[in-house]
Specification:
Number of strands of chain B: 0
Low-confidence stretches of chain B: none
Mean pLDDT of chain A: 84
Distance between the termini of chain B: 69 Å
Order of helices and strands of chain A: HHHHHH
Low-confidence stretches of chain A: none
Radius of gyration of chain A: 21 Å
Oligomer: heterodimer
Largest sheet of chain B: none
Helix content of chain B: over 70%
Helix content of chain A: over 70%
Number of strands of chain A: 0
Strand content of chain B: under 5%
Distance between the termini of chain A: 50 Å
Shape of chain A: extended
Structural class of chain A: mainly alpha
Mean pLDDT of chain B: 89
Number of helices of chain A: 6
């Protein structure tokens, strides 16, 4: 039954968000700290555990796979509800504070992937 | 004629979410068609679909004057559910099924490091811009610095420190601009900055941090990278809400000598 896959996914999601909310509570901040990240790790671990014990079925895969494939459509809908008007009509402060750090982060990704590539290269010749 | 229009409207009003499935399906179909036939696959179909979403959001915002893009127009209210945080996070978690745990473990330290670097960088650069353009009290600087991280960290920081509503709305705007910019720019620069492997995606997610921007940017670039970028990015907002109103604000106060 496909619902088993969906239920496993839902369980990971709820438990992960619970962790995140709890962590936020301990740290005394009003935010979910990494709940989605915990949920992802949990799903990866459950997936691994089930496969090792041969409990992983095709239907389980399909239940999660459906939602995984719905990802882009959901992101398209999400783009549709952004406050784009506000983003395009704001003052200099907001514009610069939004653009400059982002540009710098792209440059850092570039530096990292260049280093990473040369590290992999060095490993391969050693 | 009028009666049948009312009937259609009634059915759609009651079934907004299902109607949004239909509309998003049409948007994606048209976007992939344009990508393949007109642009010869030079721009990925998902990137066109996401930009089409942003255009719809702009039109919706202009017509309604609201904050929720196309969802503020009655017929399209289902977009708010389909594109809301619950479905977004649920589908992000589902993408983890295809992630390789050994890569995540191996790149974990860099991912963590990139989170701190990303927050510090955005925060202090944002605060410096705030200072340069005349918002020179530590509270405003910290709030706009928070907004340069994400559009959630800004108002959380401003709320905690008691910033003025003008500064808080500036910080939200900075975060929204970042999110939209990341969405559009990521697929364009991805190749040039080496964003084509899981390791870089994890570092990218940690450095950029704005979940909706990272999620949409990677979706438009290469869906296989999504889980790696998302897994670090989802820690960013929480960590930023922790650091910005507390220790980073104190550092700003120290620097400003007040």
């Amino acid at each position: 039954m496909i619902i088993y896959g969906v239920a496993v996914l839902a369980a990971c999601y709820i438990v992960g968000l619970f962790f995140g909310e709890y962590l936020g509570n301990i740290l005394n901040i009003n935010a979910n700290v990494g709940g989605v990240g915990f949920a992802m790790l949990l799903l990866i671990l459950v997936n691994y555990w089930l496969k090792k014990r041969n409990l992983f079925t095709r239907e389980l895969n399909e239940g999660v796979g459906f939602w995984s494939n719905m990802y882009i459509p959901v992101i398209v809908a999400m783009s549709g509800i952004q406050n784009v008007v506000a983003a395009m009509s704001q003052s200099m402060v907001a514009l610069l504070a939004g653009i400059l750090p982002t540009g710098l982060c792209f440059i850092l990704v570039y530096i990292y992937s260049k280093r990473n590539k040369s590290a992999i290269f060095q490993q391969s010749i050693q | 004629m009028n009666a049948s229009f009312l009937i259609i409207q009634k059915v759609i009003d009651k079934n907004g979410l299902v109607f949004s499935f239909l509309l998003v399906g049409i948007i994606i179909f048209l976007s992939f068609w344009v990508s393949e036939k007109i642009l010869k696959k030079r721009v990925p179909g998902s990137a066109i679909a996401i930009i089409a979403g942003l255009v719809l959001a702009y039109i919706g915002g202009k017509i309604s004057g609201g904050k929720n893009g196309i969802a503020d127009i009655g017929l399209f209210s289902g977009f708010a559910i389909m594109g809301g945080a619950m479905f977004r996070d649920f589908t992000i978690v589902a993408t983890a099924m295809g992630a390789d745990f050994t890569i995540i473990k191996r790149t974990g330290l860099f991912g963590l490091l990139s989170l701190f670097i990303g927050i510090l960088l955005a925060f202090f650069l944002g605060a410096a811009i705030s200072f340069a353009l005349g918002y020179r009290d530590p509270v405003s600087m910290a709030t706009i610095g928070g907004g340069a991280c994400t559009f959630i960290i800004g108002p959380v920081t401003g709320g905690a420190l008691g910033a003025s509503s003008e500064v808080i709305s500036l910080s939200i705007a900075a975060g929204v601009i970042k999110s939209v910019l990341v969405t559009i720019a990521t697929p364009i620069v991805a190749k040039k900055i080496g964003l084509n492997n899981p390791q870089s995606a994890m570092v990218y997610g940690g450095l950029i941090g704005t979940t909706s921007g990272v999620a949409a940017g990677l979706a438009a670039t290469d869906v296989k990278l999504v889980p790696y970028g998302a897994i670090t990015a989802t820690f960013y907002t929480g960590l930023g809400c922790l650091l910005c109103p507390s220790i980073l604000y104190l550092v700003i106060r120290l620097l400003m000598g007040s």
